[in-house]
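Re: the 300-residue chain
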Amino acid sequence: MVSASQHRRSRQRDTRAGRHRESDVSESFATSFAALGELAYEGARVSATVLDLVTGLPLLAIDDRVALPTASVGKVLLLVETAARITTRDPSIPTILDKTPADAIADSGLWHRMQVPTLPLGDMGLLIGAASDNVATNVLLRHIGIEAVRMRAESLGLTRTALLDRVRTTRGPDDAPQLSVGSTAELAWLFYALARGQVVDSVTSQRVLDWLSLNADLSMVASAFGLDPLAHRASSHGLQLINKTGTDEGVRSDVGLLQGRRAGVSYAVTVEFTDSSLHDRLRVLDAMRVVGRDILEYVY
C-alpha cells in the first residue's frame, strides 16, 4: 500500500516547478488566470491550484510551488495532529483542556468572549474549524507542541507548508514572521488527500473534514458558491463545500473542497498584496471570487 507521504512525493516528482503560463490552465479556468494575472501584474504575489477530485490532475496552476504567507490556513495542520491524537486515544493529551492568561488573544474565534474556562479536546477542534478560534489554537499548541505539528506535516510530504508559531497580537524580532506559510500545490493536495481519507487514516481525515465543514468564512473563493455561511454542512442545490481561510494584513488565502453534480475539486488560492486601501483589498477578493465562479461552472 502506498503511504500518503509516498503518494505526495510521487506527485511532487511528477509536477513541474512553479509556473505561471497559460498553457498550464484548463480552458475552464482561463478567466481565473486572467483575473489573478492582473493582480500579479500590479505587484501582488499570487499562487493558485485547482485539482480534479477524481483524477488528481491540475485544472489551474499558477506559481503553485511558491510558499506564501497563509495566515490561519496553517491551523489545518494543527487539526490534523489533534485528530490523529484523538484517533489513537493518546494518553499524553488530556480530554479536557483549560485556557490560561498566556493563551488569551482576541480577533478570530469565540472562546475569548465565552465564560467557560475549559473545553473538551474535540470542541476545540470544532471552534477552530468553525471560527478559526485563536484561543483554542494556542491552548492546543501549548499541549501538542509546534514540533509535533511540524513532524506530522513532514510525514505527509509537505515541504513548503507549515504552521510556524502560536497566534500573537504582535510579532517581535524573535518570533516567526508569519503564523503559517504554504504552497497552493501542497495545500490543494492536502485537501484532496483528506477527501480520499489518506491523511493519517480515514478516521482522522473524516474528523478534520467534519470540523472544517462548519467554517463560516465564505468571503473569498467560496463567495461564488451561493451557500449559507452558517449552515452548509448538508448539500445545497447539489453543492457541498468544506474550506479553511486565512486572513491577515495583506494576505488572503482560501483552501477547500467543492463537490458538485458533475465533478469535484480541491482548490487553494493565496494572494499576498499591499493592503493600502479598501480598493486594493476588494480587487483581491473580486479576483478570488472569479476563481470561485470558474470552479462552480466546472463542478456544476
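Residues 4-299 form a domain with the Beta-lactamase fold (CATH 3.40.710.10).
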